[in-house]
């Protein structure tokens, strides 16, 4: 999008800024709602679901089953990415974002109404799993559409910045989710929290959904897709087009993004369980550490997104991944001191590395694909990365801790994930110089020399 003018009037000069502000706010609030819904489930999996829905099992086994339910949504995300990607490339970004937001909101609200295991037995975890799958389907379509609403509206020299705003939804949603449980912990006894208090964050999500719907209804379709639609240039089967002509970008993009899921889930899912069950931190202390770290991440993401507009996507992302690997052991050394201050320092360091990795990655993935198939390609690649990284992390890390008794054993998992991501990223070409219009991103080279 060309935003340069010879002699712009004040109104003309301010219009793009106002428009992008609206788009950025819509993207942040929408993705925050989706990730809030997702991460209250993750937080509840670590704190209460093993007792509410899987009480007949050993505590560790119950935690593994709770995380297994948490991971099940990642398979559903792949289906959602293909489904919403198809219609997003055929019908438009905006309509799919509205559908996905409603799906996520209804599923999350319904989880808050579920009877527990003591009431209906095995049907309780079955219904929980079903609603979790619906959440996965919704998120599979949400993230890619939100990224495209920001990136395809943005000026060409600010795509990294506005793409990073979408990424704020992850730490912001997690922050609000942790804050909700922190408030519940502070006001309720353990018995009340397990009995009914855990339901409050799920039921309250309906308010955020209402706000997100209002804002998104007042946001325009992207210029890039509008051009494709005006020319009747939509691809008949976007998924087939992506998998036959851009499969390398899909796979390499997924592996390159994998370490973001590993790092973040190491902090918000495994770290919460490890801190409370192994190290003896109180729930409130671990939730507070996660909350402060997410606040830092929210501040850093746009800075790294803006930096990627100046020096390139790959240098910033690679720097973040290498930092994640280097901080893997120090994170656990600091946690194992059982000191709140040192544990917080470990979280802040790892979250800073994560922000450098995660901030530019949305724009980078979007720029790998042409407009006609971008919703499908972007969504499938990102959701595949979640399956490879985020879904496996809580289960593998819990199993490693059980087998070794040492949290530091998990550090090797983080290092391995980082190594794979760097290798894949180096096989993809830099995308900074590519224009974000309907035609310029139709093809992307794959190179091991860049």
Question: What does this protein look like?
Answer:
- The protein is globular and about 60 Å long.
- The model is unreliable at 1-18 and 435-450 (pLDDT under 50).
- The protein has helices at 10-52, 59-90, 93-111, 117-120, 123-151, 159-167, 169-187, 190-197, 199-217, 223-230, 238-245, 247-278, 283-311, 313-335, 340-358, 361-366, 374-388, 392-404, 409-426.
- It has a single domain, classed as Up-down Bundle (Growth Hormone, Chain: A).
- It has 19 helices and no strands.
- The longest helix is centred in the N-terminal third of the chain and has 43 residues, at 10-52.
- It is mainly alpha-helical and 450 residues long.
- α3 (93-111) runs antiparallel to α9 (199-217) and α12 (247-278) packs parallel to α17.
Explain briefly what this protein structure is.
The protein has helices spanning 10-52, 59-90, 93-111, 117-120, 123-151, 159-167, 169-187, 190-197, 199-217, 223-230, 238-245, 247-278, 283-311, 313-335, 340-358, 361-366, 374-388, 392-404, 409-426. It is mainly α. It has a single domain (16-426), classed as Growth Hormone, Chain: A (Up-down Bundle).
